[in-house]
Write a structure and sequence with these properties.
Shape: globular
CATH architecture of the domain at 37-151 and 204-259: 3-Layer(aba) Sandwich
Radius of gyration: 18 Å
Largest sheet: 7 strands, mixed
Low-confidence stretches: none
Helix content: 40-55%
Number of strands: 7
Strand content: 15-25%
Order of helices and strands: HHEHEEEHEHHHHEEH
């Protein structure tokens, strides 16, 4: 792991990590940050059906919960993370919490594999190894990054980590007086969330790198694509992959063109 983010360090207090994950999950759900992925997710689940959806580096499962609210209906769910947390939202499908640290010999579960705004935490060789595992296992794949190596992204995470934390903390459920303490009287949450946001921007995966990784995943049995989704002010960088259908023709790109 190359990350300098506090939440990735083993010494970082679990309570502060939990508050940070809860806040990010609340933002994802409240503002529909991953709603532009709904069509792509529906396609991958419908065209490559499985009993499971595995979300790696799931944190407090905010992106997963928000996509379920958008109408995504997995049959079963694995939430995998180095520091597994109970989901902040009530998920309407059975789920398992799994301790999972990259790199690993095998991605847990089966079927669809996702990673939301965590790809930048890992060094280039680990990123490539993880993607190659998914392709080797013939699993549909979706990696989405909302943090970009741009000035706009830096401004967004700075506002979210400072003004956003001050404004939104009282609305995060379940309500916690300790959360208020570490936000207003001892503003550790503001410092840690802002720092981690800055580190996310500085370590963000570039568009050219994402495109290169997608190209490297291509084979006779697997196709990968890079595309962007969402409005300009919170544009998502997405790397998606899928096994080739029996006919040898993959229809993911045409699906995106019709439903973007």
């Amino acid at each position: 792991m190359r990350s300098l983010e506090l939440e990735d360090q083993s010494w970082f207090p679990p309570l502060l990590r939990f508050y940070q994950m809860e806040y990010l999950s609340w933002l994802a759900a409240r503002f529909g940050l991953y709603a532009p992925l709904t069509n792509a997710m529906q396609y991958l689940l419908q065209c490559h059906p499985s009993e499971q959806w595995t979300d790696c580096c799931s944190g407090a499962a905010g992106p997963v919960a928000s996509l379920i609210e958008e109408g995504i209906e997995p049959r079963g769910l694995i939430l995998a993370d180095q520091y597994p947390q109970l989901p902040s939202e009530l998920l309407l499908v059975p789920f398992d919490l799994v301790h999972y640290r990259l790199p690993a010999d095998s991605i847990p579960g089966e079927g669809l594999v996702t990673m939301f705004n965590a790809f930048h935490h890992f060094a280039a060789d680990v990123q490539q190894q993880w993607l190659q595992q998914a392709a080797a296992q013939q699993r549909p794949l979706l990696v989405a990054e909302i943090t970009r190596p741009t000035l706009l992204s830096w401004l967004a995470v700075t506002l979210a980590g400072t003004l956003g934390v001050l404004l939104f903390t009282p609305f995060i459920q379940p309500f916690s007086f300790k959360r208020l303490l570490f936000t207003y009287l001892l503003p550790i949450n503001i410092i840690s969330i802002t720092w981690d946001g800055w580190m996310s921007v500085f370590g963000a995966t570039s568009r050219s790198r994402m495109q290169q990784l997608a190209t490297q995943l291509h084979s006779a049995h697997y196709k990968a694509y890079y595309f962007e989704a969402g409005p300009w002010w919170r544009r998502l960088a997405v790397l998606a992959g899928e096994p080739i259908t029996p006919s040898g023709v993959s229809s993911f790109t045409s699906h995106l063109n019709n439903h973007a």
